[in-house]
Amino acid sequence: GESVGLHLPTLSVQEGDNSIINCAYSNSASDYFIWYKQESGKGPQFIIDIRSNMDKRQGQRVTVLLNKTVKHLSLQIAATQPGDSAVYFCAEITGNQFYFGTGTSLTVIP
Amino acid sequence: DAGITQSPRHKVTETGTPVTLRCHQTENHRYMYWYRQDPGHGLRLIHYSYGVKDTDKGEVSDGYSVSRSKTEDFLLTLESATSSQTSVYFCAIRDRGPQETQYFGPGTRLLVL
User: Fold this and answer.
1) pLDDT tens for residues A55-81?
2) What is the Cα–Cα distance from B67 to A96, expressed in whole angstroms?
3) Cross-chain Cβ contact B105/A46 below 8 Å
4) CB-based contact, A77 to chain B, within 8 Å
5) How many CB atoms lie within 10 A of CB A92?
6) Which of A41, B41, B49, B103 is a plausible cystine mate for B68, CB 3.0–4.6 Å?
């Protein structure tokens, strides 16, 4: 099956700093990549996606970078806020199936 | 939340009993998915559906069956629940609009004793 991994299981940042969460993927044929945020007791929430033919995509306070050479995906959160505390995980889409990483737990220190 | 509800939200059952979880969507999406989420694992696909009566297996389908008799409902059945099926179950729909994504339901916490 697919292998989608995250480099760090936990990340702590000061409020106002930028956060970078990384993800490695294995299938170079994947069509899309997505970042999700999951708060405790809730379902995953879509943050941002990027197509495999793109290198960078920006949203509101978030940027996703895709490096296909090394099969690496990152999520950058600018000016991290306490409300950003959650588990973040990436997913790759191949055909009709989505493959999810295990997640990085982000803690924002006030 | 893309109009996705799951029922029940919590369930405790005993080993060997059948359990059915329901996912309901209100936006007429073609694709629906069932996942389980366990500590140390990412979301793992159980089954998915690409239309009424059209389903396919995911990576952890053993012990589970699904049915989709109408667009809005996707049922997941544990034929004979085991303790290893204790998990949080998420339903999702696939949205192939401007953004390629899945929207998830709130989840069902299942405890098999």
Assistant:
1) 999 999 999 999 999 999 999 999 999
2) 18
3) no
4) no
5) 25
6) B49
pLDDT at A2: 42
Predicted local distance difference test score (pLDDT) of residue A74: 96
Helix (H) or strand (E) holding B77: strand B73-78
Judge: B43–A1 Cβ closer than 8 Å, yes or no. Answer: no
Residues B88, B37 contacting (CB under 8 angstroms):
yes
Burial class (CB in 10 A: 0-12, 13-18, 19+), B18: exposed
- Out of A1, A44, A103, name the one closest to residue B59 (CB): A1
Q: What is the rounded distance in angstroms from the CA atom of residue B52 to the CA atom of residue A106?
A: 39
String of DSSP letters for A51-76? ETT-SEEE-SSEEEEEETTTTEEEEE
Burial of residue A63 (number of CB atoms within 10 Å: 0-12, 13-18, 19+): middle
Contact predicate A48/A34, CB 8 Å: yes
Token pair for A88: 């973040």
Q: CB-CB: which of A34, A43, A99 is closest to B106?
A: A43
- The arithmetic mean of pLDDT across residues A83-96, rounded, is 91
Residue B16: other Cβ atoms inside 10 A: 10
